[in-house]
Design a protein that fits this description.
Rossmann fold, alpha/beta, globular, ATP binding
Length: 325
């Protein structure tokens, strides 16, 4: 559905993208992940035909975005980080305007359908400027859906939303992904993991990883350090840890419930301590109510990926990032 080959973009002498290549299959939800300034928005602007590339090609649904822009753009729905809304219009009035621009037939029926899809039917007669941030974002999604495009490109769709609104938009995007090819950009890893079946990671304009969220998480998790909720006295926990086959440091974090404490357990960096922790506390009759590997922060994830990439910053041949690369 989308094919990106050797995409390069300069702004004056500054290189924003460096030979980025990836593809997105029909019906796939791809996450475009990167820190601010990594090149995500530049990539999306080129994919939508808003700006041109210095070098490289983008093909959408078989159409080259530069050679056949109208045909390519007719298959794309785009939501920029700042939704392109006319605040003094009513929601329905605005969607009628968008549908007119896109030459949509049966506008009334189509608008009713997209309002239902994104959950804005109840506010369709209200002025956009009087809507909450979450509803404005939904109206932005509605305009992207006008014309029933096969491809959706969403730039930071949850930016500025509160936690409940973020969950609503995530759920909506996953639902929309059942019928469309979607690219979602974000600098927040958990959001990408929740919504996407595959992740492309950009750093300083270079592609440094292209993999599933599961494989990426497996690469960047820290199994030598876990957080566990353990039932029993802290003295008994400390005694059990001192008898572990694997040397391990234990740190009490908080009391979660009566006689249930949260601990951080850290072993040698080259060892996965989870099985040893489980066996140790089972033998000591200290129930583990919860245990998870400690996730890296986004900054730590990028440091690890950058360290693993062939050029310490990625490159066109960085490909899938695997442990030991």
């Amino acid at each position: 559905m989308i094919e990106v080959k050797n995409l390069t973009k300069y702004y004056g002498k500054k290189m924003a993208l460096d030979r980025v290549s990836f593809s997105v299959k029909d019906g796939e939800v791809l996450g475009l992940l990167g820190l601010n300034g990594a090149g995500k928005s530049t990539t999306m602007n080129i994919l939508t035909g808003y700006i041109g590339a210095t070098e490289g090609t983008v093909t959408v649904n078989g159409y080259d975005i530069m050679l056949e822009p109208m045909k390519a753009k007719s298959t794309i729905g785009y939501l920029p980080e700042q939704p392109p809304l006319y605040l003094d219009m009513k929601v329905r009035e605005y969607l009628e305007f968008v549908c007119s621009l896109k030459k949509v037939r049966n506008k009334d029926v189509h608008i009713e359908e997209i309002c239902r899809q994104v959950g804005i039917t109840a506010v369709s007669n209200r002025l956009i400027k009087n809507l909450s941030k979450g509803y404005k974002q939904r109206v932005g999604l509605a305009q992207a859906l006008a014309g029933n495009p096969k491809v959706l490109i969403l730039d930071e769709p949850t930016a500025g939303l509160d936690p409940s609104q973020i969950i609503e938009i995530r759920t909506l995007i996953k639902e929309l992904g059942k019928e469309r090819t979607i690219i979602v950009s974000s600098h927040i890893l958990p959001e990408i993991k929740e919504m996407c079946s595959r992740v492309v990671v950009l750093h300083q304009g270079k592609l440094i990883a292209d993999d599933t969220p599961e494989n990426l998480s497996r690469t960047i998790t820290s199994p030598h350090q876990v957080t566990a909720w353990i039932k029993g006295s802290s003295e008994a926990v400390i005694q059990a840890v001192s008898a572990m086959a694997v040397p391990c440091h234990v740190k009490l974090l908080a009391e979660k419930e009566t006689d249930v404490y949260e601990y951080e357990l850290t072993g040698p960096e080259d060892q996965d301590i989870r099985e040893a922790v489980f066996r140790t506390f089972a033998k000591a009759d200290l129930p583990i109510l919860s245990m998870k590997g400690n996730d890296f922060t986004l900054e730590e994830i990028f440091l690890k990926l950058i360290h693993q990439s062939p050029e310490k910053g990625g490159g066109k041949d960085a490909g899938n990032i695997r442990p030991g690369n």
